[in-house]
Design goal:
Layout (H helix, E strand, L loop, with lengths): L6 E6 L2 H11 L4 E5 L8 E5 L5 E6 H8 L12 E6 L2 H13 L3 E8 L5 E6 L5 E6 L5
Parallel strand pairs: 1-4, 5-8
Antiparallel strand pairs: 2-3, 3-4, 6-7, 7-8
Length: 137
């Protein structure tokens, strides 16, 4: 297996609400919800930089497809990192996420390792870290 990820799929409780958050709130480009003609098929994809795609899919459909038990979500299982070019950009994105309805769990601050970061949870509890790392110019 090559060390390459092409799609990150987030299970969501309300597909329309999640679409609004990512498309309208955070400005992620998408063609909207597709696959509604199929049972368990409705999904939305967002084109990210570097060829990566973010997908949102209802949790119950994801569990059905993967044949796993639908369990309560946990925000402590995964963090999606969004690295940016400056401290100011961290602040702007955190503000944008909050305006879109995200919960700021960790306001932007100087990190112990020399960078600057903050965390927010999207509407379904997925944890995002917005970070400026001076070592990753």
């Amino acid at each position: 297996m090559k060390p390459k990820i092409t799609v990150l799929t987030l299970g969501v409780d309300d597909l329309e609400r999640a679409l609004h958050f990512y498309r309208d709130g955070l400005g992620f480009p998408t063609e909207g919800i597709i696959g509604t003609e199929f049972e368990h098929g409705a999904v939305a994809f967002f084109e990210l930089e570097g060829g990566l795609r973010l997908a949102i899919w209802e949790r119950k459909s994801l569990a059905h497809e993967a044949k796993v038990e639908l369990k309560p979500p946990s925000s402590s299982e995964l963090t999606i990192g969004h690295n940016v070019g400056s401290r100011e950009e961290v602040d702007r994105i955190m503000e944008q996420a909050e305006k879109a309805g995200a919960v700021i769990t960790d306001p932007a601050h100087d990190a112990f390792w020399g960078g600057y970061s903050g965390h927010f949870m999207d509407l379904d509890g997925h944890l995002w870290e917005v970070v400026w790392n001076p070592a990753w110019e």
